[in-house]
Design goal:
Blueprint (H helix, E strand, L loop, with lengths): L3 H15 L3 E9 L5 E9 L7 E7 L15 H10 L9 E3 L9 E5 L4 E2 L13 H19 L3 H4 L9 H7 L1 H4 L5 H15 L8 E4 L8 E4 L2 E5 L6 E4 L1 H11 L16 H12 L6 H24 L7 H6 L2 H13 L1
Antiparallel strand pairs: 1-2, 2-3, 3-5, 4-5, 6-8, 7-10, 8-9
Helix pairs in contact: 3-9, 7-10, 7-12, 8-9, 8-10, 10-12
């Protein structure tokens, strides 16, 4: 939510960091996975033309800054990826200094385009296969380029890789919020199956953590950028392709809540493996883990929505899919 204090803080930031010749021209709320995300524009004083378009991300006040709420940790990642020519926003300003906003911050240049929300895309996207499928294809092709980035060159000290077994176990405290007893039983069964068959975790490198077209910007049918890196890390890169295959898999979704014209998961795997130049026999495990992870997140978010603690009707739609996601994960692990 935009407040008078935020506006005043941002005006002070622009004056101090961009120069006294610039002023705030506009400030808007935006969606963000974690923390607080705002869009703003600048102009030269006395002029009407927009000089710059930016995204401001700050963590929520009073929240422990770790993982996805440690907004500042994205700065070195995005800067390294941008320097390598990958399609991410440039980060001209970022600091742990709390002088301007009372918390650390990052300011990114805004990229052109609009995200493709896979279940209910904006009306500017035509809902037919010849328009939607290329968006999914570009998403896979870009993933290959991100996974080929040599993280040891610019991010060797950014973060230590986390073992897969530890990642699986992390979601137990999340799915324990399940509102339906069957969700809890299904989650426990899938957790056991995952832990009994943990793969090696190779290859290791940068992963996004929520890689799907809803975090891609598209303009005139062309991918212009990958955004929302809050869940990124260094670790098993197949987490990303498994997540994308899970999002595209119709077995995870009820008829009224299906992704719009995705590529078949097998085609996503083929494009990815062709681009990487090798095959990955453990991809089914990663797709199963992705379904388990999203369904576990759903257990918590459905509770928060139903209890009025965090109003978000999307999670009521997702509630019809949680058992399907757990079942699909089980089938992938036992099939």
């Amino acid at each position: 939510m935009i407040t008078a204090e935020l506006k005043a803080n941002l005006e002070s930031f622009i004056h101090d960091q961009m120069g006294p010749e610039f002023e705030l021209a506009g400030l808007h709320d935006s969606d963000g996975h974690a923390g607080l995300t705002f869009l703003f524009e600048t102009r030269r004083r006395g002029e009407t033309a927009i000089a710059g378009e930016y995204v401001l991300k700050i963590p929520p006040p009073g929240v422990a800054r770790r993982g996805n709420t440690d907004v500042y940790r994205q700065a070195p990642l995005l800067r390294a990826l941008h320097a390598a020519g990958l399609p991410v926003p440039r980060v001209p300003y970022a600091s742990e200094n709390e002088h301007w906003f009372g918390v650390p911050y990052i300011v990114m240049e805004r990229l052109p385009g609009r995200v493709f929300f896979i279940w209910d895309p904006h009306h500017s996207f035509a809902r037919h296969p010849e328009t939607a499928e290329p968006l999914w294809r570009q998403c896979v092709e870009a993933l290959v380029k991100f996974h080929q980035f040599d993280w040891r060159q610019g991010l060797a000290d950014w973060e230590a890789p986390e073992p897969l077994a530890a990642q699986v176990g992390r979601w137990r405290k999340i799915y324990l919020h399940a509102q339906e007893p069957q969700w809890l039983a299904e989650a426990e069964e899938v957790e056991r199956l995952l832990l009994a068959s943990v793969p090696s975790g190779l290859p290791v490198g940068v992963f996004h953590g929520d890689y799907q077209p809803g975090n891609m910007l598209y303009e005139n049918g062309r991918l212009t950028g990958v955004i929302d890196w809050e869940l990124a890390g260094i670790g098993a890169q197949l987490l990303d392709v498994g997540w994308l295959m899970m999002a595209a898999d119709p077995h995870n979704w009820v008829p009224d809540w299906q992704p719009v014209h995705p590529l078949p998961p097998a085609e996503i795997q083929r494009i990815y493996e062709t681009g990487m130049g090798q095959t990955y026999p453990d991809i089914a495990w990663y797709q199963a883990y992705a379904g388990y992870r999203l369904a576990s997140i759903g257990c918590l978010n459905v509770k928060l929505h139903r209890k009025g603690q965090r109003h978000d009707p999307i999670w009521e739609s997702m509630s019809w899919c949680l058992s399907r996601m757990f079942a699909r994960a089980r089938d992938l692990l036992t099939g």
